[in-house]
Amino acid sequence: MVSLDQLQSRLSDLSIGVHALTRPEESPASRLVKLDPNTVLNLRNGRHDVIILLGSLASGPVMLSPQSYIGLDGKGKLRAGPWGAVLFHMVSPIVPGGPKSIIKAENLSWFDGLQSGVRRCNFRTQDYSVALVDFTSGTRIRPHRHDRGEEIYLLAGELAGAPKRLKPGDWLRLNPSIVHAPHSETSTRFLVITGHLKPDGVQTA
After folding, report:
1. What is the four-CA torsion angle of 191, 196, 199, 200, rounded to 10 degrees?
2. What is the C-alpha to C-alpha distance for residues 189 and 179, in angstroms, rounded to an integer?
3. d(C-alpha 184, C-alpha 137), whole Å
4. Which parts of the sequence belong to the ChrR-like cupin domain (predicted)?
5. Which of 51, 74, 127, 135 lies at a CB distance of 3.0 to 4.6 Å from 88, suitable for a disulfide?
6. Which band of pLDDT confidence, cut at 50, 70 and 90, is reported for residue 96?
């Protein structure tokens, strides 16, 4: 069983507001957002991928718990629950006009990966991929690179060879030229985004 205690401890220390992960000139932009209880997050026009890390978040009448997902093209409003919320939020200025998608944590659908020891839960599969991935203890992936980049946010456990060693709350964006061979000696869960960068490391069209 994957424990999220280390992540909760680390995220609880964040101050209220927006904590940018990418540089200002980079797009898509990734950030952590910590909201006070019952406050509203206004999403500007763009493509948004939101994963709840702590607390709860309301999208319209639907209240969502940690590891739930919201995908939205365009503008929108999200409201933190009664204990606040911490979110991972990736936003791109491109708005293809896709439908809104909500996946509740209690409805996550997992399937086995191509390699033994890997399980995957897809959030977004159109244009690029957003997913949760589990490694069982001792899982090792052969060296490879992603033609359109990859982004990793570690939720639990420890991931080595990514190429850096990551602990809960660590984030890493890999440009397409980077080769890595992720492996873990303990049960590990991470958020992964792939296919959202061009070969030169900027956003996809």
Report:
1. -90
2. 21
3. 6
4. 102-197
5. 51
6. low
Residue 162 corresponds to which tokens in the numbers above? 């990514």
Distance, CA of 68 to CA of 181 (rounded, Å): 28
- Looking at residue 203, its pLDDT comes to 41
Identify which of 203, 159, 146, 124 has the alpha carbon closest to the alpha carbon of residue 7. Answer: 159
What pLDDT does residue 83 have? 95
Please report the domains of the chain, with CATH numbers, ordered by start residue: 5-103 (2.60.120.10), 108-194 (2.60.120.10)
8 A C-beta contact, residue 187 and residue 136: yes
Residue among 122, 133, 79, 69 at smallest CA distance from 100? 69
